[in-house]
Design a protein that fits this description.
By secondary structure, this protein is mainly alpha-helical. About 50% of the residues lie in helices and about 5% in strands. The N and C termini lie far apart (about 75 Å).
Length: about 475
């Protein structure tokens, strides 16, 4: 009977501790040990197969398109183009970096973007963004969907993505907002939003700003359809996207400046996550997203880089405290890279990259194209735009801050000064209103806690910002 129970459990949990199986015959113990070893090997091989399949598709398309282009490209144009490239090899990277983007686009044929890594990464993001927007089915779901009802969205593969899962402490904090006494907010009519204002980070209990800045211009994709009509519409963009991805294999970003590397890998990371969603569907949890990030990879300069490798090795990002499951998995399964791959990494970590990387979740920042020329300004703008759009007030006058922003700010200020730090990124009227609410709470018996933390929402959704912002 003991043997029966052990074997029955082993069918579902093969990796059980074999030290607990001393009551069964040695032959059965060896059998279970062999099964556990084989299960581990099969799991590892399955992961490798998925990764190889992903790369095989890229290589197959690269060969076909290369053959087609070779037949179509006139020899005279090829000689002229080669001459152009030879002349530009003597130009310093600084001069090329200052060149106007529009002029470069006209001078650089698409098939030669492999010689210009930053322009290539920018075009890849633009292309996959257009594919997502093309596949968005606006006839079924309005483009401005509020997240207030917390209804799960539909992924491109037709499955439901993960809905919000909040901890007991977070739910307790939400409850306290409704239980605490009312603060007089009547004087804030000019800065608080009416119900019709689009708020991409609207959650239960949060009063939004009347003006959320550049995020009011964002295009939202929280539902997608892969029907025949949508695929036909996106077919041209898909062909162009494959063409751009194929060129990455010949890109060598090792000798780029730090700003150039940073912009290149930010763009590539955002594109790779979107590409993985199109190829595999949207994962239902952070654990499955982490698994997907370890499978999906691009070949750059002859090396394969997964999304996990790009984020935590190349960009040197810290484990995401605001996503504890991912942080735990990262601690248990650290990305493995070669010494050669490490040469592709940036020299110094840039914390503001937090506001540039998107994993396609409701709580993620919007996606936009990053360029090396004004990268520092663009990252600071990304930080300001995200904070301005995602931070709000409760009806009790408490500042509501996303977990991601709180985790980021903890490296800079104490929690007691978080509200003041947030005010730096808000318009003058909003900042003054926040300071007034904080002051009222301090003077009342509401306690010293002036901020509430909004948990990370893992449901599928992308926001795309236009390139030319006011």
């Amino acid at each position: 009977m003991q043997l029966h129970v052990v074997l029955e459990n082993a069918i579902e949990h093969v990796a059980a501790e074999l030290s607990d199986l001393s009551c069964i015959p040695n032959d059965a113990q060896k059998l279970l040990s062999n099964i556990a070893t084989l299960e581990s090997a099969v799991s590892r091989l399955e992961d490798e197969i998925v990764s190889l399949h992903f790369q095989l598709i890229q290589e197959r398309n690269e060969r076909r398109l290369a053959e087609y282009r070779f037949k179509q490209l006139p020899s005279q144009a090829q000689d002229t183009l080669d001459g152009m490239i030879m002349q530009e090899e003597n130009i310093s990277p600084e001069i090329l970096q200052r060149a106007e983007l529009g002029r470069l686009k006209k001078q650089i044929p698409e098939k030669r973007l492999r010689n210009y890594p930053n322009q290539l990464s920018e075009e890849i993001v633009r292309c996959v963004k257009n594919i997502f927007i093309s596949l968005a089915d606006a006839s079924i779901v309005p483009s401005k969907i509020s997240s207030e009802n917390f209804q799960p969205s539909t992924s491109p593969s037709g499955h439901l993505s993960s809905s919000s899962r909040w901890s007991l402490s977070e739910l307790s904090a939400l409850s306290s907002w409704s239980q605490s006494p009312q603060i007089d907010l009547q004087c804030g009519n000019e800065v608080l939003a009416a119900g019709s204002i689009f708020d991409p980070y609207k959650v239960r209990g949060k009063l939004s700003w009347n003006d959320i800045g550049n995020y009011s211009l964002a295009k939202e994709v929280s539902w997608m359809s892969v029907g025949k009509q949508q695929l036909e519409y996106a077919a041209g963009a898909l062909r162009r996207f494959r063409s751009l991805i194929e060129q990455l294999a010949e890109v060598n970003p090792i000798h780029l400046s730090d700003n150039e590397k940073l912009a290149f890998w930010i763009n590539l990371y955002n594109a790779l996550i979107m590409h993985a969603y199109l190829a595999y569907g949207v994962p239902r949890s952070d654990m499955k997203l982490f698994s997907l990030m370890q499978k999906a990879a691009y070949t750059v300069g002859g090396h394969s880089f997964t999304a996990t490798c790009i984020e935590y090795v190349i960009l040197k990002m810290k484990p995401p405290v605001h996503r504890p499951q991912t942080a735990l998995l990262l601690a248990l399964q650290k990305p493995k890279v070669s010494e050669e791959q490490k040469k592709f990494a940036i020299e110094t970590p840039e914390p503001l990259v937090t506001f540039a990387l998107s994993c396609g979740s409701y709580s993620s920042p919007a996606v936009k194209v990053y360029t090396p020329r004004n990268l520092k300004d663009e990252l600071q703008e990304a930080q300001r735009d995200f904070i301005r759009a995602s931070v709000g007030l409760s009806s009790k006058g408490k500042l509501l801050v996303p977990k991601m922003v709180q985790s980021f700010a903890r490296a800079l200020v104490d929690d007691s000064k978080l509200a003041i730090w947030i005010s730096r990124f808000l318009p003058q009227e909003q900042a003054a209103f926040v300071e007034q609410c904080v002051s009222q709470r301090r003077q009342s018996f509401l306690g010293s806690r002036n901020c509430g933390v909004l948990p990370f929402d893992a449901r599928f959704r992308y926001l795309f910002l236009p390139e030319r912002l006011p």
